[in-house]
Write a structure and sequence with these properties.
The complex is a heterotrimer of chains A (112), B (182) and C (647).
Chain A lengths: L1 E7 L2 E10 L4 H13 L4 E12 L1 H16 L3 E5 L3 H9 L8 E2 L2 H9 L1
Parallel strand pairs in A: 2-3, 3-4, 4-5
Antiparallel strand pairs in A: 1-2
Chain B lengths: L5 E2 L2 E2 L2 E2 L12 E6 L5 H9 L4 H4 L3 H17 L7 E9 L2 E7 L8 H16 L3 H4 L17 H9 L3 E4 L5 E7 L6
Parallel strand pairs in B: 3-7
Antiparallel strand pairs in B: 1-2, 4-5, 5-6, 6-8, 7-8
Chain C lengths: L1 H10 L2 H18 L7 H21 L3 H21 L4 H24 L7 H6 L2 H13 L7 H8 L1 H18 L4 H56 L4 H16 L3 E7 L5 E9 L15 H9 L2 E3 L3 H9 L3 E3 L21 E9 L2 E10 L7 H26 L5 H16 L10 E8 L7 E9 L2 E9 L3 H19 L5 H12 L9 E9 L4 E7 L4 E5 L4 E5 L16 E5 L5 E5 L1 H4 L10 H11 L5 H16 L8 E8 L2
Classes of the chains: A alpha/beta (112), B alpha+beta (182), C alpha+beta (647).
Chain lengths: 112, 182, 647
């Protein structure tokens, strides 16, 4: 799994490439924590290139989501598809996670 | 097709020693040491026997990996000397798994079901603030990477039944796939 | 009297020297194994020589004896070092000179001849070999391609300085002086330790370099296969696969440009189908063609050659590789114009071969000042081999395009698998082989191979890739290519496994696990080495015990953790012994009662057939498994590889 960061306006986009599984999901958590320490306030997690996620990955996303919510900052998860979408549907967390279909939509939400 | 795990409209994990899902006739069998590093490898060894149609890209593999991970991590405490036994059978219409570990059994099962009930009611009432308290199931034995999320999804996925034996160290599950219209 | 002398001698500087000499000797003897020029052996001999002469000097403390032995020492040292470069004059002349000087000194000492010439002057005669040594080492810098020679070149300055210092001290202080014996001598000997360390460092760098080279090759292969694989998964077009491949091959071989040619379907000709980067044509352009970059590029892009016509047509017809390191001086490369984009510095062309049939060629060009090196040529050959598979598979894919997605994936994987099944098991004197493989559902994820590394040596491989489908097929192709690449490097089987593992771990896609079993056998002695990555244990029938022996090594599969260390076990095969390697599909075959075939039944089958040939044993096992399974559907691939040591 590879993590890349880019910036668009005030928002930081984390592009996740590969699989989020029990061996590497903690890395996304750690990255977001480091970014929070650096006072980043707007996060977009782009899962366009993620085709596999298990409960550890979901757990990482939940942790990130709840931490950011508690700090009153902004998070959007975008471009989920295939089995990643199915797994989130199975855990019934589609309503819990702030999800958009595209990065453009995510950026719009950030402004709102 | 209704989900077999539903009881009074709520999904729950049942204990049923006599469930026909524990009947292992005609099933293939493999055994693994409880090596945490190899969980995805063991999963692949089992999932590779499944016909491609039911794999749903990699959803079947992912669901199986959760069960094996639980057996390795929580059941056998990642002790390489302890074994995880898996019986499995696949067809274009079903996926059937029985997984047994050498542990003490899932003691917090009732707590989990209770937790899940509360989670479900938050979902039903659309109360996402309250849901935040029920997204992760933790006991004193949990670590940062646990959350019980695997089981929430499993109950939905294994709609033909998801049951423990009396000792709660063996779990049987069935998923039914609709017949393909050719 | 003797004991007093010994006690006195031991309490003096002799003790230090007696400790240093054996240590040096031991170090050099140990390092002897790592090189073939005999430099270490020479050094070990010199260390012994020094130790002995120190003992002799303690008993007969004559300074001239010491000086004479110094002369001999430097003469031999020069001989050893020059010999590693094969220099005739450089080694014999100084040695002869030294022996003569030493003889004269001893004569002078014993018989009092030439009293006007001080002994110290004789001592300085040692400067001759020291300087000759330095000259030979410096001149040999360009040829320092082995560890022994590299060492000689690397230590030439310290050796020169140390030797001059030593000889000056000997001349000024005299060998009997306490300062000389207690300080200068041990310091000089310690130089030997420095040499030993330098040698270890050279070996280490060589290993790192080799590992780096193999890792790069493996990375290149992986990217090549991956890029063709992903091109196949997306909107499929052969053109994209070829364009992709041209790009990857050019990049990995360090070329400025590349071209891929494929055989025409009906005519005996090859056409260029993809061009990447700047590719100056290595054939004569028609004079009427305007020398404009885009016109020439379009012309090149659609060029066609009959088999045997021109350099590229010849490569396609003969299947032989072409390497033109310096195009400027090669008469075969025409000058098409003065423009710099037409200038070709260096050219490599490799045929694309699938199952002994040439399907095309790939050409690589360099336009800058740096030409292709031998390493680039090796890399290009490797890439062309695997490019061939990618191209062949693209065409299989195209044929199967009408079928459903799932069938298509299975047939690509099948196509990959067909191109890598071993064509023929080699003949090895002293052993016979037999094998069978039975795939479960069309696509086989088992792999077996017998790779002959020398006339009397082979590596037997049996493996089982987890998962089905295109990715697993690619992993199998990679594992096979890596094994073929490194079995020639004469490393032990555990190292082979570590490298295969490193080659496929940690890549982005999953489905990259496999179990592997390797047995490297020397048929002339019966000695073998076994290494295992979580594969089924070996079953060996031992004729002298008339029983089956199980050999296993606990390990994890390849692809799980990049840094996994694998272990190896030594084995020995005696005439009549039978080795059986197999995959888990054999022992896990189910019968109608739900029981597994098991290792016991396999062992019994081998025992029953112990007098038969390897081929017959393999067939007998196949028969037993089939009989056991009855009508139960086969759920996993089965593979058996048998080796019997001839009586």
């Amino acid at each position: 799994m590879e993590l890349k960061i880019r910036k668009s306006g005030e928002s930081y986009i984390i592009d996740v490439n590969g699989e989020m599984d029990l061996y590497n999901s903690y890395r996304l958590k750690e990255l977001v924590m480091r970014m929070l320490e650096k006072k980043v306030e707007r996060f977009i997690i782009n899962l366009e290139n993620v085709d596999y996620i298990d409960s550890s990955g979901i757990g990482a996303l939940i942790y990130i989501c709840s931490t950011i919510k508690k700090m009153n900052l902004k998070l959007v998860i975008t471009n989920i598809h295939g089995s990643v979408k199915k797994v989130i549907e199975l855990t019934k967390l589609m309503g819990y996670f702030p999800i958009t279909q595209s990065i453009e939509e995510a950026l719009e939400r950030m402004e709102a | 097709m209704a989900n077999e795990n539903l009881k009074n409209g709520i999904l729950e994990i049942r204990v049923d020693e006599n469930s026909p899902l524990f009947d292992k006739t005609g099933m293939l069998h493999k055994e693994f040491p409880s090596d945490f590093r190899q969980i995805r490898y063991f999963t692949l060894l089992i999932a590779q026997s499944a016909p491609p149609d039911i794999k749903e890209i990699n959803l079947l593999e992912q669901q199986i990996s959760e069960i094996i991970k639980n057996a390795v991590k929580h059941g056998n405490k990642c002790d390489v000397e302890k074994k995880v036994r898996v019986w499995y059978s696949f067809s274009p219409e079903h996926a059937h798994l029985v997984v047994e570990d050498e542990g003490e059994g899932f003691k917090d099962l009732e707590k989990w079901n209770e937790f899940n009930r509360k989670r479900q009611s938050c979902l039903d009432s659309g109360n996402f603030e309250a849901l935040a308290d029920y997204v992760s199931f933790r006991t004193i034995k949990s670590d940062d990477n646990d959350g019980g999320n695997a089981l929430f999804a499993a109950l939905e996925y294994w709609d033909g039944g998801f049951v423990f034996n009396q000792k709660r160290n063996c779990i049987a599950m069935l998923k039914r796939f609709p017949k393909r219209r050719l | 009297m003797i004991s007093a002398t010994i006690a006195e001698a031991l309490s003096g500087p002799l003790l230090v020297k007696l400790v240093l000499a054996p240590i040096l000797g031991a170090a050099f003897l140990y390092l002897r194994r790592k090189e073939t020029e005999g430099v270490m052996t020479g050094y070990a001999f010199l260390a012994a020589f020094l130790g002995l002469r120190d003992v002799a000097f303690a008993l007969f403390p004559f300074p001239d004896l010491y000086r004479a032995s110094d002369l001999i020492f430097f003469g031999i040292l020069c001989w050893v070092q020059a010999a590693s470069f094969g220099a005739r004059l450089g080694r014999w002349l100084p040695l002869a000179f030294e022996l003569l000087a030493a003889a004269l000194l001893v004569l002078k000492s014993a018989l009092g001849f030439a009293p006007g010439v001080p002994s110290e002057l004789f001592g300085l005669a040692a400067l001759v070999p020291v300087l000759v040594n330095f000259a030979v080492s410096s001149l040999g810098r360009a040829e320092a391609d082995t560890p022994g020679r590299s060492l000689v070149v690397r230590v030439r300055f310290p050796l020169l300085a140390g030797s001059v210092f030593y000889l000056a001290a000997s001349a000024l202080l005299g060998p009997s002086s306490f300062a000389f014996q207690a300080f200068v001598i041990p310091l000089f000997y310690s130089l030997g330790l420095y040499f030993a360390f330098m040698f270890v460092d050279i070996l280490h760098r060589e290993l790192v370099g080799a590992v780096g080279y193999y890792e790069e090759s493996i990375d290149s292969l992986y990217e090549l296969l991956l890029s063709s694989g992903s091109a196949m998964k997306a909107e499929f077009s052969i053109q994209e696969v070829l364009d992709n491949m041209a790009g990857v091959i050019a990049e990995k071989a360090g070329a400025d440009g590349s071209a891929i040619l494929l055989a025409d379907e009906f005519e005996e000709a090859v056409s260029i189908r993809a061009v990447h980067g700047r590719f100056p044509p290595p054939w004569k352009l028609p004079d009427s063609l305007p020398r404009a970059e885009d016109r020439v590029a379009a012309f090149v892009r659609h060029a066609r050659f009959r088999l045997g016509e021109g350099l590229l047509g010849e490569v396609a017809q003969s299947g032989k590789h072409l390497f033109v390191p310096d195009a400027a001086v090669d008469p075969r490369i025409p000058r098409n114009g003065e423009e710099d984009w037409l200038r070709l510095t260096s050219l490599i062309a490799a045929p694309l071969v699938v199952r002994d049939r040439v399907i095309g060629a790939v050409a690589l060009s360099k336009s800058g000042p740096e030409p292709f090196t031998e390493r680039d040529f090796d890399r290009a050959k490797l890439l062309a081999n695997f490019g061939s598979i990618a191209v062949a598979n693209s065409f299989s894919f195209l044929e199967a395009a009408e079928r459903s997605d799932i069938d298509r994936e299975a047939s690509i994987a099948e196509g990959i698998q067909k191109t890598i099944a071993p064509r023929k098991i080699p003949e090895l004197a002293g052993v016979s082989f037999g094998a069978y493989t039975s795939p479960a559902r069309g696509v086989c994820s088992d792999y077996y191979d017998v790779i002959q590394t020398r006339a009397d040596r082979a590596v037997l491989v049996v493996g089982d890739v987890a998962g089905k489908g295109v990715n697993a097929g690619i992993v199998m192709a990679m594992v096979r290519s890596i094994i073929h690449l490194i079995t020639n490097s004469a490393k032990d089987t555990a190292t082979l496994l570590s490298w295969v593992n490193r080659g496929i771990s940690g890549k982005v896609d999953t489905d990259h696990f496999a179990t592997l079993s390797l047995v490297s056998v020397d048929a002339s002695t019966g000695e073998a080495e076994f290494s295992n990555a979580a594969h089924q244990p070996l079953l060996i029938y031992r004729k002298d015990a008339d029983a089956i022996e199980t050999v296993d090594i606990k390990s994890i599969p390849i692809g799980v953790e990049r840094a996994t260390e694998y272990a190896a076990k030594r084995l020995r095969f005696r005439p009549g012994d039978v080795l059986v390697m197999y995959t888990d599909g054999v022992v896990e075959a189910m019968n109608e009662q739900g029981r597994q075939f098991g290792r016991k039944n396999l062992g019994n089958a081998i025992l029953r057939c112990r007098e038969l040939s390897a081929k017959e044993i393999a067939e007998a096992i196949r028969g037993d498994v089939m009989e056991f399974s009855g009508r139960t559907k086969q759920h996993d691939d089965q593979t058996v590889l048998v080796m019997k040591a001839k009586l």
